[in-house]
Specification:
By secondary structure, the chain is mostly helical. The chain has 8 helices and no strands. The structure holds zinc ion (ZN).
């Protein structure tokens, strides 16, 4: 009711004062966001809600603990991660294992062979056992 009665008049006023044009622009909204963001940072609000949250997001975590990745990993584990990533990219995903150069390919090949061998051995052992009885 009130909107129907005053809506048109308020709309006209918003157009005449330039309030409508200002509200439709993106720049003031972005500017307000920057202002509020700075206030949140200065008041410690951002820090508080990040600590309350289950975990810090990637960039926030990196900013809060710049050496964290070095604390939870060693050179060896990082190197292994790179090797594993390369192995998955080049050998697993493409279906082109390279046991001559890749330790992980060798390991997987060996495991597959052992599984096949044990399957053959189990298959061979059972009939023998049944034959002896
Ligand atoms: Zn590989």
């Amino acid at each position: 009711m009130i909107g129907k009665k005053f809506g048109r008049a308020n709309g006209n006023r918003a157009v005449e004062s330039g309030q409508l044009a200002k509200a439709a622009q993106l720049a003031p909204v972005a500017e307000n966001g920057r202002i509020q963001g700075k206030k949140n940072a200065e008041s410690g609000h951002m820090q508080r809600i990040q600590e309350v949250g289950a975990s810090l997001g990637g960039k926030a975590a990196a900013a809060a603990h710049p050496n964290h990745i070095f604390e939870i990993t060693t050179y060896e584990t990082r190197a292994k991660g790179g090797v594993a990533g390369s192995h998955v990219n080049w050998h697993v995903n493409r279906g082109k294992p390279n046991p001559a150069k890749c330790e992980l390919c060798r390991r997987e090949l060996k495991e597959k062979l052992q599984q096949k061998l044990s399957a053959v051995n189990v298959g061979a052992a059972e009939p023998q056992g049944s034959n002896q009885q």
